[in-house]
Amino acid sequence: MAYSQDGSPWPTSRHSDTAIKMNMKIRVIIKKLSNPHVRRRLKIGLSVYTGLIILGVMFKVVYDIGHFNAQSLKKDKNAELPTTYPVLTLESAQRIVVGALKEDPTNPKTTVDQIIDNNHKLSTIIIENNKIKKIAWIIDLHLFFTGDLFNDQGYNLTEGIEHQYNINRGDR
Q1: Which positions ≥6 away from 116 have C-beta within 8 Å?
Q2: Is residue 121 in some structural domain?
Q3: Domain count, the chain
Q4: Counting C-beta atoms within 10 Å of the first and last residue's C-beta, which end of the chain has fewer, N or C?
């Protein structure tokens, strides 16, 4: 062990002086922390800080769970979407018309002559009953109606299609 010039066991180098000062600062801090008022404030501060960390972690977990659920719902919704849309055929249109008009399916009075627009949301067809042709509409491949259909600008689509396919409106 090296001794200083005065014979004390403490080294006298500059580096060791900073170690001694640091040791003294730590003792001062420990002495101040032993004060009950300081301890109480420290406990309150650490409790608040811990509470904020726990609250932040809870928000993060809740957000992640909600985000995960939302993403899985999106995936489920996309999986439910049809990859192909059904096509309206003359036979399926005839079945829809006969069912809506409550006619005998083996001997219907109303027949489907032509499918004008084969859209799965709104299909346009020409039906014939007692040699009178009319424009009819099939919505979502299961609802059937005859009558005037107007677009958002007030144009009568039924009249336009009747004019285009030379169908006499006659008495309605």
Answers
A1: 124, 125, 126, 135, 161, 165
A2: yes
A3: 2
A4: N
